[in-house]
Write a structure and sequence with these properties.
TIM Barrel, eight-stranded parallel beta barrel, 10 strands
Length: about 325
């Protein structure tokens, strides 16, 4: 059984209600172009997608964005920082599945929090000029948010989903496909190829025809019982990309999750190990567009309780500000 409890504003009405100005639309487009140029090997810069596991509280996110924007100024000639503003996270806990659903402990209200999430995103863009990334959990909402993001990631359990592949083929900026939970790199590459192919899909009562997305790429998160940031996995992925004649060969390494066994403090160590392992191979150095890192204002994580603390991750553990600055400046030296 089901019943309709809310009626969501149309994408057009939502964008009119909470608009992104023409000036900042141009800023988003410039960020997308810069990321596209990195993915298609036109730019020698590297991409660092960094931020909390899950977006939670407005004041915490704005404080973190301010911190990150100050570091971006120091490294912008070599590194393009993209803030993880993950409002769509796969969760089975009904009372906090994602920021587009509610803030922690609040009764879910999709109408309110899709609007609130958009408001927070625009504040970050307009105040700190940072490009934003999100996990595209619900492709049916793409038209409500497509103007504010510069990067989308497809979660491991969604990579093989036909609808995610079809919608990704319409997006005109980078989409990172994680390898699935089986660890199979070939399945990840199948998804990349699918999104690089013209397609047709349905949202509501509208049918859309797409061209293709040449900026889709892979994200390595782990492989069965082992991490997959090791050179042998990177090399295997490069060989498959080459065999299948994929136009823009590109890969990002997820330094947390199972690649670190959720030992979040190892992320800097993993980055150093990856760069060292590929330093003598020019193809792999260009192939790896760099890293995805989980970072927030304080080290670690917390469980849900009646005394939830802002500024500390409620989902996966993150490195705090001090370790984050150390990590980014270390990366800057290694470019």
């Amino acid at each position: 059984m089901k019943k309709m409890i809310w009626k969501l504003l149309s994408p057009y009405d939502l964008k009119n209600k909470i608009p992104l100005s023409d000036f900042w639309k141009e800023s988003v487009n410039n960020n997308r172009k810069e990321l596209n140029d990195i993915i298609n090997w036109k730019s020698s810069k590297k991409i660092l997608i960094i931020g909390p596991c899950s977006a939670d509280y407005e004041e915490s996110l704005l404080e973190y964005a301010k911190f990150l924007s100050e570091i971006q100024k120091k490294v912008e000639d070599k590194i393009k920082i993209v803030l993880r503003f993950y409002t769509g996270k796969p969760r089975t806990i009904w009372w906090w599945k994602w920021l587009q659903n509610s803030v922690p402990w609040e009764i879910p209200n999709l109408i309110t929090w899709i609007e609130n999430s958009r408001n927070i995103a625009i504040k970050i863009i307009e105040t700190y000029s940072l490009p934003l990334a999100d996990e595209l959990l619900h492709p049916q909402l793409i038209e409500h948010i497509d103007d504010i993001y510069s990067y989308f990631a497809i979660w491991a359990r969604s990579t093989e989903n036909q609808f995610h592949r079809e919608v990704s083929s319409w997006i005109s900026f980078p989409v990172g496909m994680k390898n699935p939970t089986s660890g199979d790199i070939k399945l990840m590459i199948n998804s990349i190829q699918a999104s690089m192919t013209p397609s047709v899909y349905v949202i509501g009562n509208s049918v859309y025809e797409t061209t293709w997305n040449n900026y889709t790429h892979g994200i390595l998160r782990w492989w069965l019982s082992w991490p997959n940031y090791w050179k042998e996995f990177i090399n295997t992925a490069f060989e498959i990309f080459t065999e299948r004649k994929i136009k823009n060969k590109a890969l990002i390494i997820d330094t947390n999750h199972d690649n670190s066994r959720k030992q979040y403090e190892r992320q800097n160590e993993i980055i150093t190990e990856v760069i060292s392992s590929i330093s003598w191979d020019n193809n792999l150095k260009d192939f790896i567009k760099w890293f995805m890192v989980e970072s927030y204002l304080y080290d670690g994580r917390q469980d849900f309780s009646e005394n939830v603390k802002k500024w500390l991750s409620l989902t996966d553990p993150c490195i705090g500000k001090e370790k984050t600055e150390e990590l980014i400046m270390n990366l800057y030296k290694l470019v």
